[in-house]
Amino acid sequence: MTTVRSFSELPRDPRPVCVALGMFDGVHLGHQHVIRQAVLDARALHARSAAVTFHPHPLFIVRPDRAPKLLQPISQRLEAIAALGTDLTLALEFDRELSQQTGESFVRNLITGFGAMRSITVGEGFHFGRQRSGNVELLQSLGKELGFTVNAMAPIRIGDEIVSSTRIRATLREGDLGHASELLGRSYSLAGKVIRGDQLGRQLGFPTANIDVEGLELPPHGVYATRVIHSQGESLGALNIGVRPTVGAGTSLRFEVHLLDFAGDLYDQTIKVEFIRRIRTEQRFPSVEALKEQISADVVAVRSVAN
């Protein structure tokens, strides 16, 4: 799959496109339904399938006080979209200029950028453009004028519950990893590049790989059994999310995972951390020695949970 960040980067291709349009944070079951419809349309119409998404979240620009934390970094979102079989993803930078475009202007610019569009698929409640002026009704009106069809996809439900990014964020805050995975349609995970920490884990005898999770929604602080996918394969991991009250200042959030039976160098590499189960809550220990003993017990618990 090709990924571009602006219309000017779009590859030249005479074929029209079938577009899936949305924020797609988390690429959950509902998003997958929208994107797969665009892929199906493209196959039927001998066109390209394209997903159009945005980064950062539009509310981060227009209403930063209401902007949600995201379910995954943009790189992980793009990977999840690619896995659904799209030919192309246009990940537009959402800035002040884009926020001033009306829904109609955005659609016309979309067609100009791609050259021709045969269909556009959105969730039935999706709004876009300045003052939320873009919606299904506008798309249908423009479709008649400009020659594309509109798929307005009903939300996916699990029982009486509508699958949504908002609901998944709440589920994560509640610590219900199983339900979050059910709504996502895959195991809940976070991926990112390994950054350099303060080497404290190594000093304790349990070196960790650290990921920057600023701006992301997270489960409650604590220790988690995880599976870590990295360039050299897979490893079980003991993940700590929290502020390290025993040895840290108690304010700086850390996402650090100790890979079991692994001694390689992962700095600057991208890893994916799949959550299995929460082992315990975050605690303050009376001494560093007590902390080391607990980490040893955590490692044993991770092996037990994963086997």
Question: Secondary-structure blueprint of this entry?
Answer:
Elements: E1 2-4, E2 17-21, H1 29-45, E3 48-55, H2 58-62, H3 74-82, E4 88-93, H4 96-99, H5 103-114, E5 117-123, H6 136-146, E6 149-153, E7 157-158, E8 161-162, H7 165-173, H8 177-184, E9 189-195, H9 200-203, E10 209-211, E11 222-230, E12 233-242, E13 254-259, E14 270-281, H10 288-306
Parallel strand pairs: 1-4, 2-3, 2-5, 3-4, 5-6
Antiparallel strand pairs: 7-8, 9-10, 9-14, 10-13, 11-12, 11-14, 12-13
Question: What's this model, at a glance?
Answer:
With 307 residues, the protein is of the alpha/beta class. It contains ten helices and 14 strands.
Give structural notes.
The protein has 10 helices and 14 strands. It is α/β, with parallel strands linked by helices. The longest helix has 19 residues. The mean pLDDT is 94.
User: Which descriptor suits the 3D outline?
Assistant: elongated
Number of E-state strands:
14
Quaternary structure of the protein = single chain
Order of helices and strands: EEHEHHEHHEHEEEHHEHEEEEEH
- Arrangement of strands in the largest sheet: 1-4-3-2-5-6
Radius of gyration: 22 Å
